[in-house]
């Protein structure tokens, strides 16, 4: 009952907390050409754990902004304009905060929960694994 | 100095689940 597979269907969060689950979901998203959404989600978690005193943190914030938020990709297109502006202003003013990507991460997570996660649970990739 | 891509990859990897 509490097998990894049972947990995968419980929630997106449970799926992403499992190594095999996260890997398989990424394979699925790559095929759907939206793996960036998952990479961004993990990048937000990694960023939140970074030490703000570390000089790397500003560079990582800039890299996340450039690669996912500003770019016309799957993440940039799904974020609300106000959310993108908020992050852009933070990066420009070098006002780095552990929670600066939280809202954006929530928006992408909701989008994955409503779309990709549901499709994944019905995909051949998932069913073959099961 | 690490490249931007390396930093980003390191950040993503640090958040990936490690064990089953």
Protein traits:
heterodimer, A: 130 residues, mainly alpha, 72% helix, B: 20 residues, 1 helix, 60% helix, 0% strand, elongated
Structural commentary:
The complex is a heterodimer of chains A (about 130) and B (about 20). By secondary structure, chain A is mainly alpha-helical. Chain A is about 70% helix and about 0% strand. The longest helix of chain A has 15 residues. Chain A is elongated. Chain B is elongated and about 30 Å long. By secondary structure, chain B is mainly alpha-helical. The chains are: A mainly alpha (about 130), B mainly alpha (about 20). Chains A and B meet through helix 3, helix 4 and helix 5 of A and helix 1 of B.
Sketch the major β-sheet of chain B.
Answer: none
Uncertain runs of chain B are none
Radius of gyration of chain A: 16 Å
- Averaged pLDDT of chain A: 95
Helix-strand blueprint:
The complex is a heterodimer of chains A (130) and B (20).
Chain A: H1 4-8, H2 12-16, H3 19-31, H4 35-48, H5 56-70, H6 74-78, H7 81-92, H8 102-114, H9 116-120, H10 124-129
Helix pairs in contact in A: 3-4, 4-5, 4-8, 5-7
Chain B: H1 4-15
Quick structural overview:
The complex is a heterodimer of chains A (130) and B (20). With 130 residues, chain A is mostly helical. In chain A, 72% of the residues lie in helices and 0% in strands.
